[in-house]
Amino acid sequence: MTDHDRLFKELLHNFFDEFLEAFFPEVFSALDLAHKKFLSEELFPDLIDGDKKRADVIAEAQFKENKKNCVLIIHIEAQNTHQKHFPQRMFIYFSMIYLKFRKPILPIAIFSYDGIRDEPNVFVIQTPFLDAMTFRFFKMELSKMSWRTFMHGNNPVSAALMSKMNYNKKERVAVRLSFLKQMASLQLDEARSSMINGFLKPI
Fold first, then answer.
1. Can you tell me the mean pLDDT for 135-140?
2. Cα(113)–Cα(78) distance, integer angstroms
3. Rounded to a whole number, what is the largest CA-CA distance in the chain?
4. CA distances in angstroms from 7 to 13, 14, 17, 71, listed in the order given
């Protein structure tokens, strides 16, 4: 596992609620996250590639207004390099997760590498006779997001990810100062502070 993968997995496992609150507030408001649980990230073997797939983060939570005990599985993948067939990979993970748990799934991809791209978030299976399926997922392209949106926040996840957002060289010091102010106000324990500090780029 690369440092990037490890950092993102630790961040999302430790601050899952805060991630949704910062970037998907509608989802955050709808779910009872006090009773969420993380599910096994090891999926079925891929018979074509010959390896066993492992997702980054899979969590399950109930809806607050839940008359039929309805739950939602949230699958998050963090990607730090461009991958041509990434939407297909997300669909394969989605299919495996559904086969394993048979519950509704909300897929989310976080693109954290430098440079601005328009990453696709759709995978289509079609024939001349029928468009059999269109699969979509939420995407976050951090390099397209403005750090200023989160500069006055009090959220450990948005603070951690600010240094991967869109800013110019003249703003580097301001980004760092905003990060340090937020970290001071959050008053996290040493272990979690150290983990979040791993996202901060050197000036």
1. 97
2. 10
3. 59
4. 10, 11, 17, 27
